Every structure is written in structure tokens, then in C-alpha cells.
């Protein structure tokens, strides 16, 4: 009796939806749609020896690829790991840039391939003098692109993976168990907060 009553209710609801011009598929199934725009952020690591010239050339290459910059951080000493010391020496500086033009988040793997190609431009004796870490940011999270596989990383394309690095909750960025040590710091999260605020205002202006 319960099953029959339930069936009658479902049939009745479908009839109402049909009269309203809506299909059951539209009601129950998710539909494909375009992603909302995200903010492109790059974290550059550069040798400190010829930093001014190297940074200018790297920034110019990035603006040619991705458009104008709307945020540039101060140069910060990078002391969180010795991973890059063999290539770039022991004195390395980090600079963050964000770009005015929003990006489709599904293009993250292509963005990473572009930044990899740019890194090769600045190689000296088969060693990198610039490392570029591209990421994308929206109002709820920050995602980095990487070529290194791990259990928590999501395959994208051509050996590129996406890592959810930070969540935005309770008015702050929150680290995850796998978040890199430098992205756990207040300094980095303050920078990303500034970029997030810029992006929030841009979204607000677009909606007005």
C-alpha cells in the first residue's frame, strides 16, 4: 500500500512538472555548465645573485603569456627546504604575482605546461634559475599545479596534477595535512588573502 501511494505521488509530481514545462531529467540530474572564473596566481623562486634583472625578465615573460599583473608581493627569503639548492643555490627569493585576467580552472594543466616552458628559457647549464609554481584561487580555496604525483593529488592532463593546498573557512585560510610548510605560514596566507580581496572586489564590480 505504501509503495502504491509513493508511486502515485511521484506520478503526480511528474505531471505537475510536465505542465510547468520542466522534465524529470532537469529536476534530478546535474547538467554540464561552464566553470566560474578563478584568479591565476604564480609563486616564483629566483636566484638572489642577479635577482632584479632575472625577476624583470621572468615577470615580462609571464605578462606576455597571461596578461597584466594586479598584485606583486615583496621578495621573500625562501628557507623552507633545500630541495632547490642544487639548481638555484642557497639564497633563493620568492615573489607572488596575480593576474588581472580571470582564468578557466579547467585550463590549469595548460597553464602549468606554459610555465614549465618559461622555466626552460631561464635555464643556465641545464639548471633552472627560475621556478614558477602556478595556482588558481577562488573565494573558497587555493589550488596548486604540480608534476609530482601523490595520493591526494588529482590527475589533470599530460602528467600534471592539481593539489588542493588551502581552504578558506572561518575568515581565514586553513592548511591541510599535505600543505607545503611555506604555505602554512602567516606570511604566505596574508599574501593570498590580499589577492583574494582583490579578486572579490573584481567579482563584485562585474556583477554590478
How would you describe this protein?
By secondary structure, this protein is α+β, with helices and mostly antiparallel strands. It folds into two domains: 1-31, no CATH class; 39-207, Alpha-Beta Plaits. It has six helices and eleven strands. The protein has helices at 2-19, 24-28, 51-66, 85-88, 108-121, 186-207; strands at residues 39-47, 69-72, 76-77, 92-99, 123-124, 127-128, 130-137, 141-146, 154-157, 160-169, 172-175. The strands form two sheets. Strands 1, 2, 3, 4, 7, 8, 9, 10 and 11 form a nine-stranded antiparallel β-sheet that branches. The chain has a two-stranded antiparallel ribbon with strand order 5-6. Strand 10 and strand 11 (172-175) form a beta hairpin. The longest helix has 22 residues, at 186-207. It is elongated and about 75 Å long. The model has no long low-confidence stretch (mean pLDDT 90).
Mean pLDDT: 90
Distance between the termini: 54 Å
What's the domain count?
2
Question: What's the architecture of the largest domain, going by CATH?
Answer: 2-Layer Sandwich
Highest CATH level, the class of the largest domain: Alpha Beta
Indicate the radius of gyration in whole angstroms: 23 Å
What characterizes the major β-sheet? 9 strands, antiparallel
Proportion of beta-strand residues: 25-35%
N-to-C series of helices and strands: HHEHEEHEHEEEEEEEH
Silhouette: elongated
Classification by helices and strands: alpha+beta
Total strands: the figure is 11
By DSSP (H or I, 4+ residues per run), the number of helices equals 6
The CATH topology label of the largest domain is: Alpha-Beta Plaits
* Spans where pLDDT lies below 50 across 5 or more residues: none
Amino acid at each position: 500500500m505504501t509503495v502504491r501511494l509513493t508511486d502515485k505521488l511521484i506520478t503526480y509530481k511528474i505531471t505537475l512538472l510536465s505542465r510547468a514545462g520542466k522534465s524529470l531529467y532537469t529536476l534530478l540530474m546535474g547538467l554540464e555548465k561552464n566553470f566560474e572564473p578563478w584568479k591565476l596566481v604564480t609563486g616564483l623562486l629566483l636566484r638572489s645573485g642577479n635577482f632584479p634583472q632575472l625577476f624583470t625578465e621572468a615577470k615580462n615573460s609571464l605578462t606576455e603569456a597571461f596578461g597584466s599583473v594586479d598584485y606583486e608581493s615583496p621578495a621573500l627569503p625562501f628557507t623552507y627546504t633545500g630541495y632547490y639548492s642544487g639548481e638555484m643555490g642557497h639564497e633563493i627569493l620568492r615573489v607572488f604575482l596575480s593576474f588581472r585576467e580571470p582564468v578557466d580552472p579547467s585550463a590549469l594543466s595548460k597553464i602549468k605546461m606554459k610555465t614549465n616552458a618559461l622555466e626552460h628559457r631561464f635555464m643556465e647549464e641545464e639548471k633552472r634559475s627560475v621556478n614558477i609554481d602556478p595556482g588558481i584561487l577562488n573565494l573558497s580555496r587555493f589550488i596548486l599545479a604540480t608534476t609530482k604525483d601523490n595520493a591526494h593529488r588529482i590527475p589533470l592532463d599530460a602528467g600534471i596534477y592539481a593539489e588542493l593546498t588551502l581552504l578558506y573557512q572561518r575568515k581565514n585560510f586553513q592548511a591541510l595535512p599535505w600543505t607545503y610548510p611555506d604555505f602554512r605560514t602567516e606570511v604566505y596566507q596574508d599574501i593570498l588573502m590580499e589577492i583574494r580581496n582583490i579578486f572579490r572586489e573584481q567579482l563584485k564590480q562585474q556583477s554590478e
